[in-house]
Amino acid sequence: MWWRDAVLYQVYVRSFADANGDGHGDLPGVRSKLDYLEWLGIEALWLNPVHPSPDADWGYDVADFTGVHPDFGTIDDLDALVADAGARGIRILLDLVPNHTSDRHPWFADPTKRDWYVWADEPNNWESTFGGSAWTRHPEVGRYYLHNFLPEQPDLNWWNDGVRSAFEEILRFWFDRGIAGFRVDVAHALVKDRLLRDNPVAGRAADRREERVYNMNRPEVHDVYRRWRELAREYDPERVYLGETWVGDPHELVKYYGDDDELHLAMNFPFVQAELAADELRPILERWESVLPKTAWPVWCGSNHDLVRFPTRWCAGDEAKIRCALLILLTIRGTPILYYGDEVGMEQVEIPEDEQLDRAHSRDGCRTPMPWTREPDGEWWLRWGDTTRNVEDMRADPTSILHLCRDLIVLRRELRGGYAPLDAPRGVWAWRRGDSGVVAVNLSDRAAKVRGVDGTIRIDTARGREGEAVAGAVELEPWQGVVVLPQ
Prior knowledge:
The protein has 487 residues and is an alpha/beta fold.
């Protein structure tokens, strides 16, 4: 399948590229950057929600699942993007939000569709992800509706056949327009306990998500994805579903693949949330490898629109560490996702409180404008961060983070086979990819040596040792990684 070899690139459309100068990124802006994305080696774009929305949660409160937000353009603009990207071998994935709608969606206002949402006469103890009770009383209805997120995001009732049929039609609508697949928002949360039972008492689990046993991660959700997989096969076995699956237990997470009949890719958030350290990342990956069926395929990322960017969170802005993180993401077995700006080491931006727009967790700092050049391109919807690391300057510098990222994307197509760990000193992570090569990365502040390595250094994160022959062992400086291929 194409997505096993591809690098996915997440585009936060509102911050990526502005074609009409209104301070908001748009679909023609994305289209104007396709030459760059093709040069980088990207084979699929995941677009954050582009649908009409009041933007209480910046697009994740959808008011029309088959339209396009006027800030981003028109449906013709989206069709043109799909066509132009396809001509370059780049597929388009949309963000699908099936757990909830906007409270301004026509469904929520329609009395005949009242049971398309989750209602209760009295609230239980479920809490919103954004804080407080997950229930709000509707004054006209006289009952409480469920919202696992903001009150403006009422949860849909996936026990209702009308909801299931409506979303199958939505999938068909976009598949008919050439969309290659969907990133499924909170894919673990669609179905709720039919009896609306109280969750276990809060505070007993280390991860609060583990306490949400009745309002998330219900076994009935897998019926939905099996049907969706059948629907995708009716079009093309190459269509793909990427699940946002906040599930800590790998034995539970792996269920979202089913018997190769549910999601194609399920995101591994324990990996994202770990520290950039060998003794944290390696056990997570190896445990995942041990439970993943042969028919399933892993997916990895370091940043996204909800999390502090990895160059800040993992690397504290240190360029050597950013290079090591990119090497890991682009060489481990699986499909990598780059969040726009990862390829230049774009950092989190500190947003003053009086400028914050996000009502949930103040995630504005990971959603700031893409630094295409050193000079900011006018006033945008969010403030600019540091533009020292920018595409224009880095593209002209073959030693830059950007060129390292591009070279790793080219190289990863040569790395075949499974993951096999190698013995390495403390603080170093090393592994083989079948017989195709060895990756060794020193995630420590002291020099180290990895033994049992022979070949030629193809990629060096510091770029100074490429082409060097290795016989028996490879030496690494602090925060240096290499890929060694057989001679």
